[in-house]
Amino acid sequence: MEFRIIKKLDHFEIDVDYQFDSGILTVQGESGAGKTTLLNCIAGLTLPDGGRIVLGEKVVYDQKQAIDVPTRLRAIGYLFQNYGLFPNMTVQQNIVYGIKNKEEYRDKMKRRELLQYADYIMETFGIAHLKTKHPNQISGGEKQRAALSRAIVTKPKLLLLDEPFSALDSRTKEMVYQEFAAFKKEFKIPTILITHDTEEGRLFADRKILMKDGKIVEED
Amino acid sequence: MLSPILLSLKIAAIATIFSFLLGVFFAYVINKKNIPGKNLLETLLILPMVLPPSVLGYLLLISFGKRGPIGEFLLDHFQIQIVFTWVGAVIASCIVSLPLMYQNAKSALISLDPLYERAARTLGSSEWKIFITVIFPLAWPGIISGIVLSFARAIGEFGATLMIAGNIPGKTQTIPTAIYFAVESGNTELANRLVLIMTVFSFLLIFCLNAWLKKKNYIGRQS
């Protein structure tokens, strides 16, 4: 995937140009460096002022050609900082929510496959026993796993993770780190992970960029 | 005595259905979408709350009257007369209860964390599906309180209703108009009974609503 994103903010302008094919790209930087805005532009939740975004072969945004594919058609999985699990639905309903929006879901055979895959994901992330619980009845670590399951069960082309570990206490974090390493091995979805923790960068990154005031100041 | 009660319930119920649909629709469109003239539209919706009922009644009368622009059109093309019918009372009740419905739906919608909509969008939902599966269920407590208050307001509507629908026993006479004319004609016994019914009914409605809202966690689920 490649992205060139220009977005004017109050105090500075985001201007980022980058491309990568696979693995995990970590985006580090202090809060206010424009990291989340960058993810939101890629997801189509925020409209950039200029640039071009290509996911796989598909151009999802191009300012010059006036292309702006709506978020729902971008096939992006997004794990928000506060997870954003729907409080009116159970864990299972949250996880199958995205599947139900898929074209294949209307086909009876494929629907069964999709739902089996959702069960498999829930098993893999150890949350199968929480199916009938509501988000306000489960712990922070469980919410994180439920939200990650929800984001990857639709088989997105790109996964965006916005500081997914920041709300967890240090003990839970250790556990989740291990799971995440296993996840990385098994699912191999190109991922952009925002963090301001250098340890997380060291643990998961295949590539790294460091952002400051909307610009990439370091990459490797 | 039964006829004004039943008629009041019928008029208020129908008026509430319309004010629910319109209130939620306008609250969503004005507060969640970028449309021109938002302020003007919102002011018009809330205006009936501050205007004297007689002004509203008069405006309705000149619009829906036989020579009024809407009244003439309805009469010429559909042979429908609004003035001095219960339909007129429904229109009056709907207009006076709409601001309450709108305000409640609005505060329910704007207090929702936009995160849920964004999450639904990344999971492939259309705007309509987001509204039905996420926004509406989460805003439900606020919408319910809008519905109950609208109903209470609609059933108590007097001034505008009297002007457009009149006071025809069995046809357009509601509880509030029946009370007024009972007092006028010295029928204190009937007035007392209707006043008691009206007060107890409204008290219970608000009491139950408050009790329910207290039990309800505003984030959407009972905890």
Structure report:
The complex is a heterodimer of chains A (220) and B (223). Chain A is α/β, with parallel strands linked by helices. Chain A has helices spanning 35-43, 91-100, 108-124, 140-152, 170-187, 198-204; strands spanning 2-8, 13-19, 24-28, 50-55, 58-62, 67-68, 76-79, 158-162, 191-195, 207-212, 215-219. In chain B, 38% of the residues are buried. Chain B has a single domain, classed as Orthogonal Bundle (MetI-like fold), CATH 1.10.3720. Chain B is mostly helical. Chain B is built from ten helices and no strands. Chain A binds chain B through residues 43-45, 70-74, 76-78, 80, 82, 84-88, 97-98, 101-102, 134, 136, 150-151, 154, and chain B through 113, 115-116, 118-126, 129, 133-134, 137-138, 217, 219-221, 223.
In short:
Helix content of chain A is 34%, strand content 26%. By secondary structure, chain A is of the alpha/beta class.
Largest sheet of chain A: 6 strands, mixed
Shape of chain A: globular
Shape of chain B: globular
Number of E-state strands of chain B: 0
| Overall average pLDDT of chain A | 91
What is the topological layout?
The complex is a heterodimer of chains A (220) and B (223).
Chain A: E1 2-8, E2 13-19, E3 24-28, H1 35-43, E4 50-55, E5 58-62, E6 67-68, E7 76-79, H2 91-100, H3 108-124, H4 140-152, E8 158-162, H5 170-187, E9 191-195, H6 198-204, E10 207-212, E11 215-219
Parallel strand pairs in A: 3-9, 3-10, 7-8, 8-9
Antiparallel strand pairs in A: 1-2, 1-4, 4-5, 5-6, 10-11
Helix pairs in contact in A: 2-3, 2-4
Chain B: H1 2-32, H2 38-50, H3 53-64, H4 69-78, H5 86-110, H6 114-122, H7 127-155, H8 159-165, H9 175-184, H10 188-215
